[in-house]
Structures are given as C-alpha cells and as structure tokens.
Design brief:
Elements (H helix, E strand, L loop, with lengths): L3 E12 L24 H4 L10 H13 L3 E2 L2 E2 L2 E4 L9 E4 L6 E2 L2 E6 L2 E14 L3 E5 L2 E5 L6 E7 L6 H17 L12 E11 L8 E6 L2 H20 L7 E6 L4 E7 L9 E2 L6 E2 L2 H8 L6 H10 L4 H8 L2 H13 L3 H18 L11 H12 L5 H13 L4 H7 L8 H14 L1 H8 L4 H13 L6 H12 L1
Parallel strand pairs: 13-14
Antiparallel strand pairs: 1-11, 1-12, 2-6, 3-17, 4-5, 4-16, 6-8, 7-8, 8-11, 9-10, 12-13, 14-15
Helix pairs in contact: 3-4, 6-7, 8-9, 8-10, 10-11, 13-15, 13-16, 14-15, 15-16
The protein binds zinc ion.
C-alpha cells in the first residue's frame, strides 16, 4: 500500500428542501404510505408533461454561489436513459452538457493542514423511487421519484479517507447554512458516491472504481480504506483494476462487484424535448446572492475579533443554528467570550446528551441573555445559574422573574454570612483545626455547609474570603 497514492473524487447527492417535487406538484416529503405521493408526471405516464419547480433552481444556485461556482446563464435538462425498477420512466431527467453551476470549491483542514478541493460542477436532477427488500421479495415505492436533487461533483483532488470526510463535513455544513437541504443522512437526504483509483507518484492515473449510495461519513471512510487496500492487492499481485461499480456492504465491511462501469455515452443522453432550457439572468442570480447568509469562514474571523479563540469560533460556527443563537444572545448581552463559554459547555452538553438527532436549543436567546447577566453581575452564583438553566431547558421562562419570586439572589451580605460561618466554625472544631493547619480540602466542606445553611445562595468566593479572615 505504502507507495500507492489514492486519487478520490466524490459525488454528493443532496435532496433539496422544496415544498414540491422537481416537475410536478406532488409534496416533497420523506416517508408516507408507499406510492401515495406520486402522480402521472413523476411516474412518467404517457402524455404527462413536466413543469419545472423554480424554487429548486433557486436553491441550486444558492448552493453554487456559497461554494464559489460560476452560475451558467444557460443550462439544459437531459434524459439519462437506463432501466432500473425504481425508475418508472426508464430515464432520469438530469443535466450533462450544460449544468447549472460549474467550478468553485471548498477549503478543508486535516491535522492542521489546509487544502482546497475544487468542484467540477453542481447540476440538478430528479431522484428515483426506492426499492424495499424483505424476505417475501422486493417492493417499489415511488414516493421519492421526482424529488429534486443537486449532484455536487468534486474534482479528483482528495487523497485520503480523512480528507474525504473533512470535505463532506464542510459541504454538509454549507448546505445547512444556506438552508437548501435538511441533510438528514438517516433519511437519505444526502448520499455519497466515491470514485477511487491508485497510482504511483509521477505515473498516469489508474483505473477507477465507483462505490455508490453510501449514507454516512463513517461508511465513506471505511469504504475508501477497504477499496484502496483491495486495489493495492490487485495491483501488487500483477493484476488489473477493472472499471466497475462496486457495492459497499456496511455490515461485512467489504465492497462487491455490481456491474462494469458505464460511460456517459452508454446512457444516450439527449436534451429533454418536454423542457425548455433554463435561462437565468445576471439580475436573477444577483438577487439570490443577496439572500446568502454569512458563511462560517466569515463568522470565524468576526468572532475572533470579538475575543473568541479560533478553536471556539470554529466550534460555535459548525452549525448555523448555534452561530445564529450566539449572535442573538450577544446582541442582548455584550459579553461574547462569556456567552460562548456557556454555549460551548452547558448548551452543547444538553444537545449532545439528547436522544434526538436534531434537537433545537430549548432556551430563548432573550432568557439566556438575562440569566448570564444575573450570573455575571453576581446576582446569582454559578450553582443557581446552572440549576435555573436546567429548569429553563425543560420549560423556558424568564429567569429574572424566577430569581425575584423564589428569592434566589446570591447572599452578598458580609454580616449575614459571617454569622453563619461563625456558627459552622463553632460546630466543627476538628475541620476548623484542619483548615487552620492549611488543609485546603476542608474548604470544600465549609463551602458545602454554608450552601446548605443558605439554600445554595451564598457567594462562594465571598465565603472563601470570609473564612480565611475568620480563622486567622
Ligand atoms: Zn408527481
């Protein structure tokens, strides 16, 4: 394996989150009773005519702009002709010669090394139905047929499983930022095809194989490692790699030959006579450009200027909902670092421990800003802040009201605290002696006792200071 170099290109299929399908008014929705969400158009009945969904084009352009593509003013839908039971029309409407977006790319980072992965193109096409296999046989559900997809095709710039995953993560992050796809891998909203070949430095590229329809980053990573090893073994033993499509079996951790790989001419592409070419004016493209949100790379720079470390800035921008939330809280309570720390610890803890995959932040930005203000200005201590936050996560409320109503404000009154501490010292001569002797561990005991006596409201910092004063 050692002197073989991997050459990897990725094709990413991402379903667009439009309300309706690409060429008909059927709902674009995951699941449902099989074959209840299709019509003569998406199943290709004779005489049915497709009508293009403008929103799908808008979404595809939006993604294209976000990754620096050139948007073609003229692009064409073509028929890709092949038979497979999940494709009721026996052709898929796709794009070949004149795709909607070309060029562009993304910067990735693996082990501190930055690399730019170029894109070849992004084109628009329709999804196929789904085959469902069980022990009685195979069934077909056409609900997914005609759902709009973009296919994002990279140049073969990727050279390891780690780079492939970094690229896919970045791509998914961008799709979510521009809100054109929900990217739910468990629902197949985003799927990956891997093209892989091996060659030696300075020698021409090798023959590639394609692994289709992988549905997780882990599967992509494992499939790449397996397939590279398999090809190396074939080549090392003097054999030839065959150009073919291979199926990745996630359970077995192996790839299997499916069919020899076709070239595009095998599909007899031709322009769909039922659809006019798509013409997009510069004005139209610019109007979409104006709707682009601030992307992660821009926010990372901005957040560092607010005092966040690069690492924190990256962490908080990985998902747009977190970055938007951070900005909303900071706009109400201008302590970026403080807010970031709370989000990265308390909120991420909650999100990560949730059983649901796409949990939303359960506390409004307004209420978190209020809570952090109370904590920062010492009205409440950390324990109370955490306690309140826990309750707010279950059912959001205004923490200012709760602190007043429930008398949770921190005891900052020295005289009251001194009295309480005096009593604890008198009641615990042994611990006091230990503390005097310099055993700092007993400090925790005293703070605990004080918290007990004050129902958790004492200012722990103040308690420490007063204790030192009293025992000396
Ligand atoms: Zn339909």
């Amino acid at each position: 394996m050692s002197d073989w170099k991997m050459v990897i290109g990725l094709e990413v299929h991402s379903e667009l989150a439009t309300n309706t399908k690409l060429f008909c008014s059927c709902r674009n929705k995951f699941g449902g009773e099989p074959n209840t969400n299709c019509c003569p158009v998406c199943t290709g009945m004779p005489g049915a005519l497709p009508v293009l969904n403008k929103k799908a084009i808008e979404y595809a352009i939006k993604m294209g702009l976000a990754v620096g593509c050139t948007i073609n003013n003229y692009s064409v839908f073509e028929r890709k002709n092949y038979f497979y039971p999940d494709l009721s029309k026996a052709y898929q409407i796709s794009q070949l010669e004149y795709p909607l977006c070309v060029g562009g790319g993304l910067e990735i980072e693996v082990e501190g090394k930055k690399k730019f992965i170029n894109l070849d193109r992004i084109h628009v096409e329709e999804d196929a139905g789904k085959l469902i296999h069980d022990n009685t046989g195979t069934m077909i559900d056409y609900n997914r047929g005609g759902v709009p997809l973009i296919e994002i095709v990279s140049k073969p710039d990727i050279s390891s499983a780690e780079e492939a995953v970094a690229y896919l993560e970045k791509l998914r992050e961008t799709l979510l930022y521009v809100e054109v796809s929900d990217c739910k891998m468990q629902e197949g909203s985003i799927r990956f095809d891997v093209n892989l070949s091996l060659h030696k430095e300075g020698e021409p590229l090798g023959t590639r194989t394609e692994m289709k329809n992988l549905n997780s980053f882990r599967a992509v990573s494992r499939a790449i490692k397996y397939e590279a090893k398999r090809q190396a073994e074939v080549l090392n033993s003097g054999g030839k790699v065959i150009q073919e499509t291979r199926r990745w079996d996630d359970e077995a951790g192996k790839t299997y030959s499916m069919r020899t790989k076709e070239d595009s001419q095998d599909y007899r592409y031709f322009p769909d006579p039922d659809l006019v070419p798509i013409e997009t004016s510069d004005e139209y493209i610019d109007s979409i450009r104006k709707t682009l949100p601030k992307l992660p790379q821009e926010r990372i720079i901005e957040y560092q200027k607010l005092g966040l470390t690069e690492q924190d800035a990256k962490l908080i921008t990985t998902e747009r909902k977190n970055a938007d939330y951070f900005e909303a809280v900071v706009s109400l309570f201008n302590e970026p670092k403080f807010v970031c720390n709370w989000i990265c610890s308390e909120i991420f803890k909650k999100l990560n421990s949730s059983e649901e995959i796409d949990t939303d932040i359960q506390v409004s930005a307004e209420n978190l800003a209020k809570l952090l203000k109370l904590y920062k200005n010492n009205t409440i201590n950390q324990a109370v802040a955490r306690q309140l936050f826990d309750e707010m996560w279950k059912s959001d409320f205004d923490p200012e009201v709760a602190v007043n109503e429930r008398g949770l404000a921190q005891m900052n009154d020295t005289t009251d605290l001194e009295k309480i501490l005096q009593k604890i010292i008198e009641d615990n001569p042994k611990a006091t002696a230990e503390l005097k002797a310099g055993n700092q561990k007993t400090m925790a005991f005293f703070i605990g006792q004080t918290m007990k006596a004050t129902a958790g409201k004492a200012n722990p910092k103040l308690v420490g200071e007063l204790l030192q004063k009293l025992i000396n």
